[in-house]
Amino acid sequence: MQTYKAPLNDMKFILRDFINSESNSLLKNSDIDLSDLEMILEEASKLCEEKLLPLNQSGDEEGCKYENGNVNTPKGFKEIYREFVDNGWQGLTVNKKYGGQELPYFMNMFLDEMISSSNMSFGLYPGLTSNAIDAIEKSASDEIKDLYLPKLASGEWSGTMNLTEPHCGTDLGLTKTIANPQNDGSYKLSGTKIFITCGEHDMSKNIIHLVLAKTPNCPKGIKGISLFVVPKIIPKKDGSLGERNNLECGSIEKKMGINASPTCVMHYNEATGWLVGDLHKGMKAMFIMMNGARLMVGVQGLGIAEIAYQSALNYAKERLQGRSLKGSKNLDKDADPILVHPEIRKSLLKIKTLTEGLRGLMLWTGLQVDIAKKEKDKFKKQNADDWVSLMTPILKSFATDVGCEASNLAVQIYGGHGYIKDHGIEQLVRDSRITPIYEGTNGIQALDLVGRKMPLHTGRLLKAFFHLVKEYIEKNSFNYNLKDFMPSLTKSFNRLQQVTAYIASTGLKDPDEASGPASDYLKMFALVATAYVWTRYAEIAFNKLNNDPNGFYLAKINSGKYFMTKILPETGSIMSSILSGAKTYNDFEDSHFDSAFKL
Amino acid sequence: MQTYKAPLNDMKFILRDFINSESNSLLKNSDIDLSDLEMILEEASKLCEEKLLPLNQSGDEEGCKYENGNVNTPKGFKEIYREFVDNGWQGLTVNKKYGGQELPYFMNMFLDEMISSSNMSFGLYPGLTSNAIDAIEKSASDEIKDLYLPKLASGEWSGTMNLTEPHCGTDLGLTKTIANPQNDGSYKLSGTKIFITCGEHDMSKNIIHLVLAKTPNCPKGIKGISLFVVPKIIPKKDGSLGERNNLECGSIEKKMGINASPTCVMHYNEATGWLVGDLHKGMKAMFIMMNGARLMVGVQGLGIAEIAYQSALNYAKERLQGRSLKGSKNLDKDADPILVHPEIRKSLLKIKTLTEGLRGLMLWTGLQVDIAKKEKDKFKKQNADDWVSLMTPILKSFATDVGCEASNLAVQIYGGHGYIKDHGIEQLVRDSRITPIYEGTNGIQALDLVGRKMPLHTGRLLKAFFHLVKEYIEKNSFNYNLKDFMPSLTKSFNRLQQVTAYIASTGLKDPDEASGPASDYLKMFALVATAYVWTRYAEIAFNKLNNDPNGFYLAKINSGKYFMTKILPETGSIMSSILSGAKTYNDFEDSHFDSAFKL
């Protein structure tokens, strides 16, 4: 059974103990305090546990229905969406000027994690709207902002992103959709976009599409791309709805999962749109928004991992099967709960420690988004922005891989019962499987890390991270409390530095030598960053042990020890693999790939 | 698009070059030779490529339909089944006495691999029949054999295995189905069995269920279990069909995948059955057969990995997206095929080298099954049997994990197109996901390896493997051809020995210390065994390079180098993780598992 209680203990720990020093200064001049934030988390948890979770399996089973250009969402979705937006959740972090509540960005991460745990498909509707708000707020003219943002922030209208075309996903330079300028300053867009999440549905009164297209005679490749806002129904100047635009949903895809959210083929046939940002700077506008979107996909991975963990733990406590090898623990019953078996414990601790470690890294990064936005001090602002740039590909990739692994481990713990649909566990595998793909595949994220973030500003982003961890290690090397943490953190950190130097130097000679190990390097980086978080958790927890009635802090320390001894060692084999070079695959002859079956 | 050509080049290499010395002596006194075997493989490949593959996606989409106790298979399945059995494939390795062709067991592995690649759901029907044949042949009375085996070998009737009940899967000691003895020597069985693959369908004229049940007042737990043959329609003595038995399919499960094969709830209501083997020795009879079944599930993993590889490779050659970092390779087109990207090459080589390495290990093990059966020399017979016992849990687990990983890598290479149903790639993920679960979860296999096979005959099974590899290393340490193989084989082999000693010694003090790392140990063992196979492949290939017109042998050597440098190093991190002990998870307090969300 899908089981979910929002991990409020852990979220509050992160708020109070982990990001408190910096978040306090962020909240200093606002009218909200820590207890307000906690209250909001509690409200969000109720919505997710009580309203969204019960629709997760039924939404998957029923799916979206397409008929004559319209898309009907599964039973109950419209009602919950109404409640969701009426309670102001869509505008949680949006500027007050546009009707939002202007809470810190990291609060959206907490909210999105809970939504992703309880109903990932549902979360895509408000999620895509948030992306659209972000793109418009950051790049559009005031006129467009004033017209669209209040309606989007209230959830009366929803939003989408239109990038992919049948022949191009990653390589958007191949875009064929054309935007012809009109005399009134608008454009007429024609072309077909695919894989458009929530491109058409019955939940909101209008759908605002942000569409990448090329103008006639524009520069070649991605340098010719511009971004346009193309509403389904063209709003009048006062925001009321006018004429239907010339765009239509042609069909929806049959997918592996996230079946309660429609993935649409969108046809634009001389549809009216308006430029967002500068002409031919569409990729820039898209990327500003995409960074936020990528972090949010990482949060989806985290959310799926959490519900996978809780569902599996619940089953492991209830399912009686076999006996503990050390002697029965449940003598009045015919068998012991499977939680007694080491294999089950390891699988659960793997998910638990990856999830909790990543949650801290994610929220810390979310806080840096806020600091980069609000901080006056130029140096601190830049530092925060650097951190976000560095961590975005790492979190997107690693957290989504963790989400997939967690849901597969949960299926394994359920055994045959995990494979049938009744329990809703296989749904987690199917839903999570999209997250390493969309918003740039995890392979692309790794190239972003190695090819862009690593050399950026002559390595400034990485140096800042290395400096932070190095300083921490120097300060805590002789901290007796951390004796089970510091040696392995130090060892893995040294490995990361060594591999970084190797990649940086070989990459100068041969770009394929640097891009080859990109995914491995990203994983190594993520493991070391997560180990750093766990060590800091442990440091905090040791100082709280004298007031730990529920064992929360002791659990943190012991979970951390599991991570450091059982998960972190993988950095060793990744290093060996990277240091053996890229020749074995880069120089592998193309014709040899099919040697086994070529006739 | 699902793409599949049987890997005949590789299969013939295994036949001619890899298992030839031992298989030749096996065939010595028979009327078949190597070229007969190759011809059979070619015939099988046509059936799989031309008939089974085209029904794979349609079968998944349509699924099986349940109505009033009957199960209808998807369109086309009945016809192909008829062709399959009419051409004698069901009886390929069955005793001639019962109408089979009595070919070596390893030929069934090749056949099953092809079937699993092209249509895993279809393969379950004849696969379960093979299991039933195996159980009856090895344990039943001559009367039962003579009545059932000819009909099963011809495929006129099909078979099933009935183990699981709602409250017990792994722990069969909890079985509740009861078998009451009758005066005529038969039994009346009552109870409910679940997860019965192909328990009811419209392909064969009769379905023969092998059912585990307890007799009244039998010993407690698994020692009280007996095995019964319970036909759907009770045959008369001459083999013609008589009365319908009192058993019924109550429903079929909605599953994640393998949708073209029904997973049935079976109700037995005073159904007539006959004892197979000795009373209360049902587990023994079941396990004799289960070993074969487990190897065959491993073969399914291998088969899925192969079609995942070929489908992904095909796409990687056709999909144009982005440019090679080293400069464009496809200047007349807008983009290069994604095969130019190192990340794609690595993913493909990972599948290719794991699949080809495992194929050799699998077939070598299949050959040992034949030797254990036919060999007259007691020592050689025992050696072969030991090898099979040792490798069965390793191959079942590792090959199925590889199948799952391969299909996920294929989805990733397809990107968004892998997530939608059209291309049939996500189906591979859904179909393969059952293989680490059924026939004993992979966690159970690992316990079998560490808890049973390791201590068996005071370590005789492991010693034989260690001796073989050690001797090989000593003989080839200075083989210049193998300079890229021997050091890494030796290093990983030493690690395996060290970890084996550690587990054996700690396990004596605390069984949970040995069972804890069981899965990790199994993976390490599989990697080292596969590395041994790749080194032997390389040794063979180097000697053939002077006559290698298609580059097959050169491809083998270069694939092997990839495996040794990129896949094998994981043994290092597995060792670190195991040697750090089991305390962090075994001593983790149960109440701490839900520390993050407990209220």
Question: Can you describe what's shown?
Answer:
The structure is a homodimer of 599-residue chains. By secondary structure, chain A is an alpha+beta fold. Among the domains of chain A are: 8-139, Acyl-CoA dehydrogenase/oxidase, N-terminal domain (Butyryl-Coa Dehydrogenase, subunit A, domain 1), CATH 1.10.540; 158-282, Butyryl-CoA Dehydrogenase, subunit A, domain 2 (Beta Barrel); 452-586. Helices cover 56% and strands 12% of the residues of chain A. Chain A has helices at residues 8-18, 20-27, 34-52, 56-62, 77-86, 105-139, 142-153, 282-318, 342-374, 378-414, 416-419, 425-432, 442-453, 460-476, 486-509, 511-515, 518-542, 552-567, 570-579, 583-586; strands spanning 65-67, 70-72, 157-162, 178-181, 187-197, 206-214, 225-231, 233-235, 241-244, 247-252, 263-276. In chain A, the strands form three sheets. In chain A, strands 3, 4, 5, 6, 7, 10 and 11 form a seven-stranded mixed β-sheet that branches. In chain A, a hairpin with a 2-residue loop joins strand 1 (65-67) and strand 2. At the A-B interface, helix 1, helix 9, helix 10, helix 11 and helix 12 of A face helix 1, helix 9, helix 10, helix 11 and helix 12 of B.
Task: Please describe the structure with a list of short key phrases separated by commas or semicolons.
two-stranded antiparallel sheet; globular; Butyryl-CoA Dehydrogenase, subunit A, domain 2; 7-stranded mixed beta sheet; 20 helices; 12% strand; 56% helix; 599 residues; homodimer; Butyryl-Coa Dehydrogenase, subunit A, domain 1
